[in-house]
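seq as requested:
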Amino acid sequence: MNTKIVFSALLCAAAGALASCSTETDTNTQDATNPDVTAKRTLSVDIPSTRSTVSLMDGNKWEDGDKFIAYNLTTPQGYDYITAETKANQQKLEGNVGCKQGDNIAVFYPLRYNYAGRNPETVELSMDYNELSKNGNTVKAHQDGTFATLSNFDYSWGTIENVKILNSKATGNVQMKKLYAVLHLDFKNGDTPITNIKSLTIDGITRTATFNLKTGSISERDNSGITITPKTARNEFDVAVLADNNFSPIFTIVTTDNNTYTYIVSKPLKIEAAGYYPFTVNVTKPYIEINNVKWGKYNLQYTPGATSAGWKDGYHLAKTPWTYFYMQRSSYPLSEVVLVGEPLPNNTNNVEFDHYRWGDIAHAHDYNSALSNTYWTAKGNQKGKMSADKQFGDLAAYASDGKWAMPSMDDFNKLAEATAQFIAYYIDDSGNVIYGSFFDPTVSADKKGWILNADGTKRRKINQSAAPMNMNGLLRKLTKADFEKGIFFPMAGTCQNAMHLDKPGSWGAYWLSDASTSNPNQAAAFTFQVTTINEVMPGYTKSAINAKRTMYSIRPVYVGN
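C-alpha cells:
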C-alpha cells in the first residue's frame, strides 16, 4: 500500500486565541487584579468559526456547547473546562480557569466524560468509543465509517503560552494541533472492488492511549484495534487513527454475503498527525482452497492481550505465511550444527507462543513443565470437537468460535493429491532464511502427488516414507507471489521439553486432528526436517505415534461460511 498525505494543513487548522480574565469565584478582588496571584478567572478565547466538524475543505469548526479541557501547566489547579458559546454574533470559548501572569495553559478538545488520566496532566483517549458534550448535549458515539462522525474523535491540543494579565484580563494565543489522521479506505480483491461491507476490523492499531497535556506525547497504547460496524453496509470507510510511527494493522472485512477478507501490513508505515491517507486495500481471503479444503495461509499464534476479529482474546493468525515466534537465524545452505532456539521466557503463561499440546485448550500456550500431561486423551478424529467443559479439544475451533479447525489426516491427504510438494526456503526482508514445505497446486496434473526437485522433476511420492532424501537439487527458492498460490509450512521448531524450543528454522511439526485409536497419549502430525548432512526428511503422517505432550504448530483450515 502506498501512502499519500493531502489536506494536512487543513486538518491542522489553528484556532487563534485572545484570552481575558475577570473575577468569578475569587472573593479577593485585589487578587484578581494582581497579575502575580493565581485566581479563578473567566478565560475567554476568540475562535473564528461555528461548527465542530472535520472538513477537508474548511478545516475544523466548533459548535456551541462543545467543551474543551483547560489545564494550567505552570500552577496546576486541576482540570477546568471552557465552552464554545456565541455572543453578539461572535463565538468564543469561555470558562473559569485558575491562572496568573506568565502561566502556560493547555487546551484540549473534546472534554470526554471520565477523561482524567491516571497521572497528573494527562487525559485518556479512545478511538473506539467516545462520550462527550456537543451542542449542550451528551453524545455517545462509536466510529461508523462515515466522515461526518469523525468530529466525535477530533482530538486537538495546543497551549496558551505566557499568559499576560492586565486589569483582570489575560491575553494569549493558542494553535490547536491534531493528534490523529484520517484513513479513507476502499477495498479490492485483485481487480474486483469489494462492496457491501458490513464490518471492518483493524487489528494492531491503537484503541486507547494516554495523552500528556504538557509534552503532547502519547503513551500507554492499547493496540488491540477497533471494529467498525456501520448502520448499513458500506463500500468505503473513513476512519480516525492516532498518529503512529509503527503502523502495522491487519484489515479484516466481512461482506453482507458473509465472505471474509484480510490484508496484513507486514512492513510498518508512518502515519502522521493531521494526515489524510486514501488507501485502496487489496484484500484476499485468509485461506487457499485446494481439493475442497480451505487451508489457512498462516499459523495459529497466541499473543497476550491481543485481539483479532473472529478470534478469542490472545489468539490470531500469523502476519505472514513464513512468520513464527522465536525465529533463529540460519543459513543457506544450512550449516548450523545445532539450532537450539532462544531460551524461552520464564513467565510461561504470559508470553507470545505458537506451539501447543494436542487437544489442550485451558493451558494451550503455557509451556510450563508442570503442564506437560495436560493434553486430551480422546481417541480417533476430533476435528472441531471439544470436551463438555471446553478444557480440551480442537484449539483452532475453540479459538475461532468454530470458523477454523485443526486439519485432519484426510485433509492432508487431499492436499497431497492435488499438489506437488517442494522442500523450499524463503529469505525475508531481514535476511532470515526460512526453510519449510511448500505445496503447489499449480503444477501439471502428472506431477501432483509427487515431491519435486527445484527444477520440477519428480523425486518420490508425497507421504510415501519417513526415510531421508538427498538434498542436492531439491531446495526451491520461494517468492512472495508463491504464497498466494500454495500452502507453505515453515519449519518453526518444536517444543519437546518445557522451556526449550528445538531447532526453529530446520525442523517443523504440525498437529493433525487424528489421535491414535489405541493409545490415548499419541496423535498424528506432519513433521519434516532439513539437516546439515545434506539430507531432508520431507514428512510422513501415516502413523499416529507423536506424543501428545509435545508442543507442535497448528495450521488451521477454514470451515466457516
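Residues 1-30, 49-53 have pLDDT under 50 and may be disordered.
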